[in-house]
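pls design
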């Protein structure tokens, strides 16, 4: 059961890294230093004071950057691959009792995949906001992404299965909406 919980925790924290790359790492560092999170062998550095300071500074810079229009766009370009890498590291760092092959396979597929999907959706949301509001709505999107990163990170630590359940529900909802789209009519094609 502990392994299943650690996988859920890793996936939940990886999803949060799709919103903001450094917020879940900062939360993990705080949780580890306070004794609420056990990290896998080789990842104890996340729970050190130098890492806490580095994640704190990086989080502040990332959050502030998204409120500056051109910097926010540049961060979006960098954030997608960074979120995937962070998702992989986050997932691998919380899975403790598993063979290295399985651990890294799960970290790459589940952690990196979830982080990439969430990050991709935030890029689409910011693009839609820019297109519809001329960039004025990006402040609201940035604030919602930050709130999402914080809430999902804390929720993943408190109830990892809830986060995984919400992610599954979201994927199903998106899938249903995608399948229900009406294909464009081909009227006139082939009818003479």
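designed seq:
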């Amino acid at each position: 059961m502990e392994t299943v919980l650690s996988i859920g925790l890793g996936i939940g924290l990886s999803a949060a890294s799709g919103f903001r790359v450094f917020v879940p790492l900062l939360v993990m560092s705080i949780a580890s230093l306070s004794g609420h999170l056990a990290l896998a062998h080789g990842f104890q550095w996340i729970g050190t004071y130098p890492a806490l300071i580095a994640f704190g500074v990086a989080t502040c810079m990332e959050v502030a950057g998204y409120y500056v229009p051109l910097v926010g766009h540049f961060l979006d370009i960098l954030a997608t691959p960074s979120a995937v890498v962070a998702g992989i590291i986050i997932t691998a760092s919380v899975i403790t009792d598993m063979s290295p092959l399985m651990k890294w396979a799960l970290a790459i597929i589940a952690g990196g995949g979830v982080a990439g999907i969430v990050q991709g959706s935030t890029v689409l949301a910011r693009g839609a906001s820019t297109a519809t509001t001329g960039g004025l709505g990006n402040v609201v999107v940035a604030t919602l992404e930050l709130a999402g990163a914080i809430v999902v990170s804390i929720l993943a630590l408190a109830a990892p299965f809830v986060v995984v359940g919400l992610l599954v529900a979201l994927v199903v909802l998106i899938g249903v909406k995608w399948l229900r789209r009406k294909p464009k009519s081909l009227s006139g094609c082939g009818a003479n």
